[in-house]
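LAB NOTEBOOK - FOLDING QUEUE
OPERATOR: T.R.
BATCH SIZE: 2
PURPOSE: Compare the predicted structure-token outputs for two unrelated chains run back to back under identical settings.
PRIORITY: normal
REVIEWER: second-year student, initials M.K.

ITEM 1
FIELD SEQUENCE / FIELD STRUCTURE:
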Amino acid sequence: MKEKKEDNLMEKIVSLCKRRGFIFSGSEIYGGLGGTYDYGHFGLALKNNLKLYWWKKFVDNRRDMYGIDAAILMRQEVWQNAGHVANFVDPMVECEKCKEKFRTDQLENKNKCSVCGGNLIEAKKFNMMFETRVGASDDSSAISYLRPETAQGMFVNFKNTVDAFHPKLPFGMAQIGKAFRNEITPRDFIFRVREFEQMEIEYFVRAETWEKYFEYWKDEMLSWMEEVGIDMSKVHELEVEDVDRAHYSKRTVDFEFDYPFGRKELFGLAYRTDFDLKNHKLNYIDEENTDLPVGKAEKMIPHVIEPTFGVDRAVLALLLSSYCEEEKGEEIRSYLKFKPNIAPVICAVSPLLKNKIELIEYANIKVFAPLKAEFGRVMWDDNGNIGKRYRRQDEIGTPFCIVVDFETLENDTVTVRDRDTGEQERVKVEDLKKYIQEKIS
């Protein structure tokens, strides 16, 4: 296996993503819009598989989690009381000469512009929320914001969830959705963007138990990363110092990843105390407090543990973890070593020759259609010769390529090629479903 060169690995990933229909620059035909990206067919499939697996692990397979899909637009009071209007800011400097703007905390030289060498003007605070207006009125009451996080949509629905389901502590609320931040300097492909997606949990606990559940959720997050195929040797825990924590957090652990452009944040785990529920004036009737007389209940404010997963950063970390190169003679074979449960395509079906009707009909009716009905993520590929198809499917990350050839017509067996080893074996058509199911299990 050939060593991956970190200096051009990002270039290879970006090129592969465009070439194979994973990710494109936003508004590309008009010159692009900074910090925005569009997911193509396979990128969307990869992202959806990550989200489905996350939802299955943290919501469907649990008894203490309630899902929600809150509106992106909320009243401005939500963000005022949550502290975002006053505190959701980044320090910003501007070049005196070329007027380029930078985040102060991302600069090596705080005095000189990295673009033109000009002097940088003194830092000022920049609120990253996108401001908009709701309705026809143009006074201040119409101001709203595109949400910079999904968390507040869960907090403002805390009472609704408690009233509807009467959950006992501890319990959580989970949401997958878009968030928006007007980043000063979006960069590094989909790592830092202005429109992104989060998978987030607000887990409500009694104040005295927060440390236990903080450790529990740290282990759960690490477990999920490993299960989806993120390279755990590149994942590191960082205890965030007081000065760097968000205004609502009493403790934060960042899970960082070794990207080609440096060790940067991948996911985060925060102890938000009772900050949000208290500011929204929300409480909980604790009927489980055994210290109180029978028939009495206590109003209390739960504390919150918040595991946050960025979908786009998960996609990038997974692409970087899965990318492999192998020397084959004078050529280099590149492929994405996705786990089958996450891969955009589980298997691709090909007739050996695309101009032989008998091969096409057999492949389509007896192989492709049954597998498509069973697994969904099955692709038909008859473009180019068989070698080109293998290379294309390798870069898509397809674990298995199934070829219908002339021997198939004689004995009802097909060739199944393994993406990682390149090895091929004959499998009976009637056994294909079982064969693939055992492989992906």
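ITEM 2
FIELD SEQUENCE / FIELD STRUCTURE:
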Amino acid sequence: MKYMAKLLPASKRALALTVISTIALIALLGVLTHEATKAEVTVTGNGETTQIRTHVDTVGELMKSLDIEISQHDTLSHPETAQLENGMEIKYFIASPVEVVIDGVHKDYHTTKKSVGSFFKEQKLSFKKQDEISHKMDAPIKAGMKIEIATALQVTINDGGKEKKVWTTAENVEELLKEQGIKLNELDELKPGKTKELTAKTHVTITRVEKVTDVVEEPTDFSVVTKKDSSLPKGEKRVVSEGEEGLVTKKYEITMKNGEEVSRKLIEEKTEKDSEKKIVAIGTKEPEKERKIVAVSNTSGGTSNNDAPSRGESHASKTLHMSATAYTANCAGCSGITATGINLKANPNAKVIAVDPNVIPLGSRVWVEGYGYAIAGDTGGAINGNKIDLFMSSQSKAESFGRRTVEVRIIEN
């Protein structure tokens, strides 16, 4: 330039400087014009806000220029085809992937919502208050979050007769009992079984079973024994020794179901005290002027319905209808001697009946239907009231006679 300046005259140098200045000014104005035509916009996303001046025409071109990819699940405040305008505020929200598991069933979602509650509302997911949800409603949504829900069932529990309905998220009966704090004892009965899967129709029944021991004291009856007493008038009775009841202890095992007895089993019996016999003395003393009693014999050794009393011999002072049985002199424990001293073993064909002296006096001569004439010469522990016992010469005859109602006549001579 110095060389040129030397060569060029002063006027030409001034012209060259003017041209150069003009070109520089034009370039500067172009730059200023380009900057002045840029649109200024605000972009907000992922918690950050940025102000940008750009010459791109649309929102989509702007997001691409910022390397922001908007997917179908993301949210953009303006359509991507919208023209940029100066002062425009553009917001975008990148969706987070969320996995939801309901009763073991998995499903994937994408959401731009900020909390679990708003996500459920967005997806129209509703749950009961009894359902178990792994996160609270105000928990923030995070990418890759896994939300688990166990829906509750209402089932019926009958525990020992007391019934109630409960909500539960348990899968089977065993988990339900654990959840409700219900413990089973060794003997308790459970229906259905522990592994049974729960449904809305499940009815769980627990029968409370227990075994207890019950000790009971029971009295035992005493027996009555009679003995002859020659010091007492014939037919008179006197209690020599009062009988006394014994005592037996019985131990029972009792099965109770829901507090009620269902079975009782005797497991032990023990005699605490033996009973004592009641002894009754029966007088055999003959009155001083009483005639001698002679046993009436049946020479045929049997009985006859034709032995009716003859009018010429005697007549009946009293006629009775009585329950009659038969006995022999050879019974266990029998001496064969009657209460009036008749030896039945020595007189097997004697016609003797045992009576209640209060009804037929001992020594009375009687006629018995089907037996004939006889002497009221004996008594017996079971012969009370209108009962008599007929002496038979053999066991077969006694058994053949059995028990029957007969007419009895007391004979007056």
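REVIEWER COMMENT (ITEM 2): The chain has five domains: 39-93, 96-150, 153-207, 212-280, 291-412.
FOLLOW-UP: none requested
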